[in-house]
């Protein structure tokens, strides 16, 4: 009998995707529109992402341009970006807003690396929880006689290989992010 690892694969992929999203929200010293993804702007009584009410483009390595489709929302966007505490300067002009990213200090880079490592640990904990749920299911199938003890341990090895591969990918992603932050 073969064990259905589809739920493990799905949960592992979702966890990795979440981690990639979390890493993309960490500044690297270069202007990136992804940094604004988590910011919600009060627009006509609803909290909406900046990307839903404005165009966001990169002017240069240190500057983003936010062009609201409704010029009346400039103040709300400016307030929301300032409130997000991203460590950026926001300047309103005739076209919309410019978000200026200052050079990262060594101390700030170290802080971002610590944040990336903490998010990696949260991701690893999620993977362990998923692994433990699957292991519990495998053990239950063995207790009820659906699979043999040999199959249980073979499935455990297969499961662990999948989790180890995911952990390796998480490690590679955090290393890549650290290099981006330090460059």
UniProtKB/TrEMBL annotation:
SUPFAM superfamilies in UniProt: Ribosome recycling factor, RRF
Domain Ribosome recycling factor: 22-182
GO MF annotation terms: ribosomal large subunit binding
Domain of life: Bacteria
Keyword Glycosyltransferase in annotation: no
Listed GO biological process terms: translation
One Pfam family cited in the UniProt record for this chain: RRF
Keywords: Protein biosynthesis
UniProt key word ATP-binding: no
Name of the protein this chain belongs to: Ribosome recycling factor
